[in-house]
Amino acid sequence: MEIEKLIDESYDIQELIAKWQQSINPDPTAIRSGQSHYQEWYARALPLIPEPQLAKFKDMYEGGGFIKRIKSFLASPRALNDFYDPAEPNPLIGKWRYPFETNFVENFQNQREVLQSLIYAVTDVAPALDELAEILGRFSDFLQVLQTSSRQNIPGPKVENEADLQVLVHSCLRLIYEDVRPEDYVPGHGGARSRVDFMLPQTGIVVETKMTRETLKDKKVGDELIVDWERYSNHPACRGIFALVYDPERWLQNPAGLQADLSNAQRIPATRVLVIR
To answer: 186 pLDDT exceeds 70?
Structure first.
């Protein structure tokens, strides 16, 4: 998992950078190498972090006008404190303008904790995604029983559009979870808000439904799911996304490929696509 690699690498980076203020005359080449190493690590980490944690992660690097963090330390790791006087040492005034322990280590540890929390989130949500895939994988059998066992004057349910599909999926989810929130809102930008089909607060899973049609086939289904997931990631409780794609007319040419390409247990949030017919 990429997140685990980043956490492991962070300790090597910290050990390397610790030498900059310990040595009397550190090698400038080593400092430039360490700066590049951290910047590359930071760039790899950013795309993996969902919106709720991203602001904190960035702040640990950026800092601000009065609060100096990793960015300031990396830019001037050997800058002396303007009030430091080696002739008259003062225990309250440190030697460095941006001390390694406070400006780098404390903030780097906070970034590491953000990454660690994401590992736990992915691990915890995986069994719930597996459970949904197992249960909803029998949706076609469930629907067939309802349609063939109906009394003569009480026809079984028909799934003619996505709204019909959502009603039946909602009823299935109610058998598994006490708290199922349909059309839960996702925080948006500029005052606009979008909605998820269902939110399962107990597990942190968003459930999305799609029903194929002549104008909604393989590529377009995939594109729509990816766009939707970018919005769903802003939901503060979202740790996983489960997409149920109903394809009764078999418009999809490669359902297995769609499932494989878009299901990713290592993604943040984790994703699972299930195609049923």
So the answer is: no
For strands 205-211 and 198-200, give the pairing.
Answer: antiparallel
**DSSP label at residue 138:** T
Q: Which segments of the chain are extended strands (E)?
A: 181-182, 185-186, 194-195, 198-200, 205-211, 240-246, 270-276
- 41 domain residue, yes or no: yes
Rounded-to-integer distance, Cα 187 and Cα 28, Å: 46
Tell me if 39 sits within 8 A of 7, measured CB to CB.
no
Numbers of helices and strands, H then E, in the chain: 9, 7
pLDDT in tens, 99-154: 999 999 999 999 999 998 887 666 678 889 999 999 999 999 998 888 886 666 66
The letter for the amino acid at 211 is M
Do residues 107 and 165 both lie within one domain? no
CB neighbourhood size of 252 (10 A) = 19
Q: How far apart are CA 44 and CA 9, in angstroms?
A: 12
Task: For residues 207 and 256, state if they share a domain.
Answer: yes
Asked whether residue 270 falls in the same domain as residue 170, the answer is yes
Q: Domain range holding 26?
A: 2-119
Could you tell me which residues are beta bridge partners of residue 194? Answer: 186
With a threshold of 0.70, does the pTM exceed it?
no
